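Amino acids appear as letters; backbone shape is given numerically. Here is one record.
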Amino acid sequence: MPLIPACLTTLAKRDALRVAIPGVLLSVCLVGNALAHTVGATVHTDAGTLQGAATSAGTRFLGVPFAAPPVGELRWRAPQPVAAWSGVRPAQAASPTCMQDPRIPPAGIGNNSEDCLYLNVHVPPQASMAKPLPVMVWVHGGAFINGAGSQYDGGTLAREAGVVVVTVNYRLGIFGALALESLAAEDKAANYALQDQQAALRWVQRNIAGFGGDASRVTLFGESAGGTSVCNQLLSPTAKGLFHRAIIQSGTCPSVQPTRAQALAVGNAYAEKLGCAAGPGQLACLRGQSAATALLASPAIDAANAASLAQFSPHVDGVVLPEQARQAFRHGRFHRMPVLLGNNADEGTLFIALAFELKRGSPMTEAEFKAMVQGSGGDASPVAALASAIVLNAYSPSRYGSPNLSAAALLGDSLFACPTQALARTLSDHVPTYAYEFQEKDTPAFVSDPFMPWGAFHAAELPFVFGTRIVTTIPSPDPREVSTPAQRALSAQMMAYWGRFAATGQPGVPGQKAWPRFNRLLQATQTLKSQGIGTELLGATYLRHQCLLWDTVAVLGTGL
């Protein structure tokens, strides 16, 4: 008797006995099983049904709401549940982006709105309900003042790395970071940007299985402010259990965290500017402002000033963030999971270009460089003066070739490379830690800069991680993309590393040279460049970025 496929019903089995072609029946059965387990373009969530769209990289669902619009009485409140809908909701167009300051590049990304708490899901062709894939949740950068999840097409990364990619929006600028005593009296939990990210992660936990994702293998990854967000989520008690691995790209939280007093000072000045005096009616006054008025009353950002860049960063509120990051990490009070973190070799060039060359058409002068160093900490003490003199000597324009290159190296080392190495040392005492430095010097820049080569600038790794163009408006609308065969090979390798880490908690790819864990002794840092991937050991990265100097400055507490 021919074998009858088990998937057939009793009636089908009876009919099948009359047909002597069991191989065909088996084929039909296999196809039926595959279709039953494949993720389609229609997915059911806990709020309703979504209709996505097929792409060359799989299926994508755009503009998926994960929280109620934070408008009116919900402005400066914790994200609330999204309202359910009936029927099928189209998920084929990007949502509005969160409110972002038009005075600060990149401006003009999408249509800005307070109604912006949406995410995007990119599902690769190999996704199935039977074998869930790792999930990677992306938190975009932009100094907590600009950017959007829709800038990043996660389709190529999803397909090449075998993961489900989710990109999210979160409230920006004053909408995501306002601190006031009146708000604390209403609800001690502040840091609305971090709360939005957590709401998106809760949505993932509830719904990602329907997209072929494994809710027990969620990697939270982000760059710049997104990396700082990931760093802070490691410290947040309210993020417990929402993700299981972390990737921090060019953004550590201990180095850019305002104190509660500093956050309150920004908030009080903001409320005063809007004429909303402290007292019973303050919050009604603030929530009654139009979105545009509320946005433009917020303080501007100076791209070359560390304190200015940090003013909308997450701060200690006692609930979402119970204590300062440096102290929490030092004492091991963070969620234990594998961490991959790194920086780019020339992080500072973008910031100096934005603050000087692209803004006014001329490079920084030596006098401006000196003023930047001497005035960066706001400290006039003799110790600060000594520290300034040491820094000026270490970053002399004669050594680096020009004041703008000196300033770029100083910013890159002090705000990115050295804090990354310091955090890697601390993390490695407790959890599996892997470090990298992106060193692709010939990465396509945003624009041609006649005054300074950008090298491996801040955000240069993004097209390599996503394997596709990243939409940006700094300062032109032309997207960046990797261009040479060697760069495309590097991109493929980086997607493999990131995907392997999401799947297993370690980035090494089978059959290739191992990516060693970082520890205090060897300080192994993987170097990523198209000329060849290698490993720096014994503090080579630390020394090249003058981290001994910056560790000393930190001990002196000068604020430089």
Q: What stands out?
A: The radius of gyration is 25 Å. The first strand starts at residue 42 and ends at 44. The chain has 21 helices and 14 strands. Residues 1-37 form one domain.
